[in-house]
Specification:
Blueprint (H helix, E strand, L loop, with lengths): L1 E4 L2 H15 L4 H21 L4 E8 L8 E7 L20 H10 L1 E5 L4 E7 L31
Antiparallel strand pairs: 1-2, 2-3, 3-5, 4-5
Helix pairs in contact: 1-2, 2-3
Length: about 150
Amino acid sequence: MIFVFKSHRDLISTRESILSVLRELNPSRALRIYVALNEAINNAFLHGKAPVTLRIEKDTKESGKGERLVMSVSCGGRGFIPTLGLPEDHMPNGRGLYLIRAMAGSVRFEDRGRRVVLECPMEQPPWATATSGGAKGSKNPRPGLSARRELT
């Protein structure tokens, strides 16, 4: 799934579509990934150049790692050299990168910092198991939520 944002307004209008993809994850992991993606997109607008592209794909190719979501945020800015850790208190920038790393787990920067790639293992959400929640005989194990869309 690919989202192209020309402005922050585009991000607001696609929020539900992004969240529908992340609903396939454990709820707490989905929230952390959403925060990381939001921060990466905001950084791309603030420090880079529009349009900003978000790509979300399921990856099952790598043996031994299992199914995972691979998400990348890219822009046409000049790029940058990512720093490690928290910046000094007097520094005006840099906390976003720390937040992305803390929320996402696996993060790498490509194309001289113009692309950030986050990887997240696909774990079964608690409601997807036969022993948890859901109405008996219901095809939707979480009543009140619509069926999730498959990524292509």
